[in-house]
Amino acid sequence: MKTKILVLSTLLSIGIAPVAMAQQGTVNGAAGGAVTGAIVGGPVGAAVGGVAGAIVGSAIDPPPQRVVTYVEQQPMPTERVVVKERIVVGQAVPETVVLSQIPEAPEYSYTVVNEERVIVDPQTRKVVQIIR
């Protein structure tokens, strides 16, 4: 039994290492999920928790400071955009909300909704950060 755990741990470590170089937030999520999964469900829980944690970890990584600064420096739009839905990190903004691309960081867009500046992943429309 101990041998199986050692082998699984080694395989998980080898599998996570390349990801660590690519996306730090994903790895943090994967590592946290793996630890939680291991506590709850043993080795199988570690594998499942690692995958779930990687997904969550990549969704909540804050954008670089240069992106936040860019969004903060943009003038407030003259037309107010108000939506009934609550704007929450990790949730998508409604399709009716127009996004503005960030020229120096095309992997991010921004908008102003309900008087709040919001940084968004343009591919998924998920909120990455709310600037208050």
TrEMBL record:
Which Pfam family would be a valid example here? DUF1236
Protein name as it appears in the record: Outer membrane lipoprotein SlyB
Q: Which InterPro entries match?
A: DUF1236
Q: Where is the signal peptide?
A: 1-22
Keyword terms: Lipoprotein, Signal
Source organism superkingdom:
Bacteria
- Organism encoding this protein: Rhizobium soli
